[in-house]
Specification:
The chain is α+β, with helices and mostly antiparallel strands. It has 3 helices and 10 strands, in the order αβββββαββββαβ.
Length: 183
């Protein structure tokens, strides 16, 4: 399954959960006004590789992302929409389950807010969850890597617009994650 399909599925699942029990205002004859194009433009630079805490590596397109290393990982900001970001933090000694449990405790979320998911093509199995901040919704993928895990947070600043959704899809479509442990 392609990442943009996973992102669209996650978005639709959350939208359905938010609208549960409410009557639809869309009639069958209406045409949806929102079309999200996440097709990547031709590369203007070769991909770069970022190694995540000795766990695995990630190839990204520097013409689409601005990569900034942080104390415990990296933050990738969209060049097409600087309000959209992906942050990665590696936890070499934490299993995916322990990482998920830590997020649930830190954000005070119920255990049933975690779902099984997939990221990439072919899909890497992940645990996914979503939570809201004061500014926006944040999507989290916890990815197993060797005996550790990687926390991938996809978010934005402010209310989500069609342009932000498109930038998120483009970022996910152009990431290439290799979960083979690196030394």
């Amino acid at each position: 399954m392609k990442p943009k399909i996973v992102l669209l599925f996650l978005f639709l699942t959350l939208l359905l959960a938010a609208c549960k029990g409410e009557a639809s205002s869309v009639t069958p004859t209406e045409t949806p006004a929102l079309v999200i194009n996440t097709e990547a433009p031709p590369a203007t630079a070769p991909p770069e590789t970022y190694r995540i805490s000795g766990l695995c590596s990630l190839q990204y397109r520097p013409d689409i992302f601005q990569c900034t290393e942080t104390a415990d990982g990296a933050s990738f900001t969209s060049r097409t929409n600087p309000k959209v970001y992906v942050s990665l933090v590696g936890y070499p000694e934490l299993s995916p389950e322990d990482t998920v449990n830590g997020i649930l405790l830190q954000k005070d979320l119920p255990a049933d807010s975690v779902a099984d998911g997939g990221l990439g093509d072919p899909p890497v199995q992940t645990k996914t969850l979503q939570y809201d901040t004061e500014d926006s919704a944040v999507f989290v993928h916890v990815i197993p890597c060797g005996s550790g895990s990687i926390l991938m947070e996809l978010g934005g600043i402010g209310e989500e617009t069609p342009e932000e959704l498109s930038a998120k899809g483009l970022m996910l479509d152009t990431f290439a994650l290799d979960t083979t442990p690196v030394g």
